[in-house]
Write a structure and sequence with these properties.
Blueprint (H helix, E strand, L loop, with lengths): L3 E4 L20 E5 L10 E5 L1 H10 L4 E4 L7 H4 L1 H4 L24 H8 L4 E5 L4 H9 L5 E5 L8 H16 L1
Parallel strand pairs: 1-4, 1-5, 5-6
Antiparallel strand pairs: 2-3
Length: 171
Amino acid sequence: MKPLLLIDIDGPLNPYEAKAQQRPEGYVTHRMQPSGWNGSRPLRVWLNPGHGTELLALAEWYELVWATTWMGEANEWIGPHLRLPPLPYIDWPATHGSAPDGTLWKTQYVVEYAAGRPFAWVDDEITERDRAWIARQGPVRSLLLQIDPRIGLERADFDALAQWATDRDKN
């Protein structure tokens, strides 16, 4: 069984903290109004179409899963712009609530969703507390990549994900 690749959107795929009005190179501006967006104007989302190609290449080794507050709407609003097929997603029981040991609110649900399967997780809010807490949960192999929300996923991140999957296959 393939390990999971759990993908956050805002930060890794949408570098929302990049300098205002300075779209990062290679990114395309989209205006979106998912149901969770309460703004008076559509949400600005920057997406790099090349990330879809990179993620599909990783699907050789991973089962791709959305790990984002966009949940199922990622398949409507994000996936088509990246030319991704509909992906499963984590249906968070709660968002932005309390979490064990100072971890990100998502962390406990990521471990629960993985249910003992190896996983790689890309998110802009991962910290050392999340890594330590996951390590204490048991012998599940995991890779947690904290992505800079000013930059988004880079070549080195895709390479690290491929390397981790390849190393897993050698064990």
